[in-house]
Design goal:
heterodimer, A: 566 residues, alpha/beta, Rossmann fold, 3 domains, six-stranded mixed sheet, 24 helices, B: 260 residues, mainly alpha, two-stranded antiparallel ribbon, 11 helices, flat
Amino acid sequence: MTEPIVSMKDVQYRYRGQKEYALDGVNLDLAKSEFLVLMGPSEAGKSTLAATINGLIPHFHKGKLKGDIIVLGQDTKQKTVAQMSEIVGMVFQDFEAQLFSTNVELEVAFGPENFAVEREEIKKRIDENLNYVGLDAFRKRPPSTLSGGQKQKLAIASVLALKPTVLVMDEPTTDLDPISKMGVFEITHRLCKRDDLTLLIVEHETEEALFADRVALLKDGKLVKVGPTRDILSDVDLMESLGVMPLGIPKFFKGIGLTELPLTPDEGVKTFHDQNLKISPLAYEALVNQEKTALAKLNKPLIACRNLEHTYPSGVKALNDVSMTIYEGDMVAIIGQNGSGKTTLAKHFNGLLMPTAGEVDVNGLPTKDQGVFKLGQKVGYVFQNPDHQIFSETIFDEVSFGPRLRKLPEDQIKGRVEEALEAVGLAGMEKEDPFTLTKSGRQRVAVAAVLATKPEVLILDEPTTGLDYKEQKSMMDMVRQLNENGSTIIFVTHHMWVVAEYAKRAIVMKDGKIILEGTTREVFSQGEALRAAFLRPPHFVEFSARVGYTFLTPEEMVNSLEGVQR
Amino acid sequence: MDAEIYLDNNSFIHRLDPRTKIIIFLLTFVAILLFQDPLWMIPVAILVLIQLFVSGAHKNMRRIRYVLFVLTISSFVLWNLFSKGETPIFWRISVESLRYAIARTALMLLMISTGMILISSTRNEELVNGMIKLGMPYRVGFAISTALRLVPTIAASTQTISQAQRSRGLDLDSGNIKERISKFLPLLVPVFISSIRSTNIFGMALESKGFGAREKRTYYLKLEMRKVDYIILAFSILFVIVSVVLAIMGYGKIEGLTRF
């Protein structure tokens, strides 16, 4: 075997001021042109591990580093990050902050400029790499006008322009909508075929790991398991226990007792037929009917839009003739690609935005007559990024902020805060500093802060973004609990599996219009229409559709199998 | 939401070399500082106004119109109070102080305008590049451009954050001054934190793309002084020289004005 490109030996690292090791004895080698996907729960040390490869650790993030990281024979401790950047390219999750030029060409030129590459050669590299990521047509555009996916592609191109041997991407698609994700994935699929590039990608999306040569699972700074992709992804139980999302297809087949597990929809369909499995039409019908009866019980309209239009001052028409109703007790997912108008629509429900034509009624009254302050008591809105609203030194102050603004008496406020924290699973943490919590903890504080004003409707803008599988699940379980206790829930999301598992109804938006609406099952059965809206149901749903039904979870499907009595 | 300051409209002024624009910017400062009398400022004012409209930078001025309005009013009042003349009109205001206040207010507005013209018509990279060509070290130039770049980012996040807090019931538009100031705290903390966070990633991305890897660096953007650049520079320099000479000869002063 040839010399590894990246070699990590007994790597131990502790951030300055922290007691715990972020990395604790990691040994990992990357071979030439290998594609490794690194997965693990939040705080496992994935980003930390990625940052050791180009020397951001220990040079940028100060702390205590032990062990050796050798990249192409170079010790990262002896080199500056800038020097390493010729060998190791790094793409970050936050696509806004890593771009800083005023046009696309100059962004790509920045790296080579730093290495004093001749102008003609820079031009060549710009042409080559913009072409590679498909941004040729955008050369003169300012990066700020690109979509999230395009920004991330640009970030990749700008790093590739340095001709690195290793490319490290730290959750490059986490903040992207499904179609932008696919665009970035498509590039990584081409990249991993190149034999001059070794790829390490930190990824939450398990379906994406299918393309890797190897998968490494990390937890608490230790590598739990590293191995060929098939071996790791078949280990459904291990992944679940680590808090990494297992694939639905192997999970289903494991549920019926198979040991050789198919991973992809193609393999799944084949195994399904090979095993002579059949779905009981009766069981399926019962499932569908049960859903219909449950939804029919929701008949008190709470929010109604009639021919709603919204045109931004810039002249962009973000919503076009939207009519829909949300009933009390509903749990609705609004889905669609970035820029399809999801958030614009949601912001009309609590009066943050007002219709430029048409009408939105909440509780039978037009939002125009109520205003954001009054509506805020009925309709709570949790923003995507909790850091955009948290400002207090203690969780109590943060959560009591809303009730205080509404001038509630002090003793009532205390009760409200207690209740709200109880609901989000943070009971008794009133005295803690919200900024010391993890992202999911801060997200919970943000939800609690809104709950404390006791809204009837709760709008959550991408409540699961940036959380790991376990956190996403517990977040959504909590939201479902709120729904069961009587709150009406509306959430905007990019995570299709969250929609599949939690939403009662789904609304699909495209170009400011609703193109599809119905029970989640109905919506997910319309594969074509979803694809037209640039959405893609999870592999598992796709697989079930290909055997003739629409199942949302592996459990449902197992229960509906012919010959299974439950 | 578009919070960019640079306007991508390729006007005549956009096409000038950044060095020309930087020099004009500096010369304009000299020219407007020379005279006390507003009448003598009219030529510079006209030149600045022409640039403002040719470059399209007046659109950016409109975006900050409230700030400009407040500055204009307060400057006008203050300069009246801080100067005294011989021909009283009423109370403390005299013909001389009035003229002087007009001139000082115009001076401030012209300074803002000329700065706005520069950053509205010059890409960040061009600006840095121009400053370096004029002898500024790369790192200093880069720092200035980073500061400029932060403005739109912070403006955008401030907007999101104020929406988030408004939907929690924060009402920024009522209460007395003290109350209003304390109401901005829920905005400031998240704005600071998110700015610091993105600056941190910015720093990482910068180093990861080899910032400062070599002593020497190349520039993809090619700056080119064309004939128009020279003509315009020659005109501007001539204009300033004439102004300086006139100022030294004593023109453009307000007789009988005392300043405090």
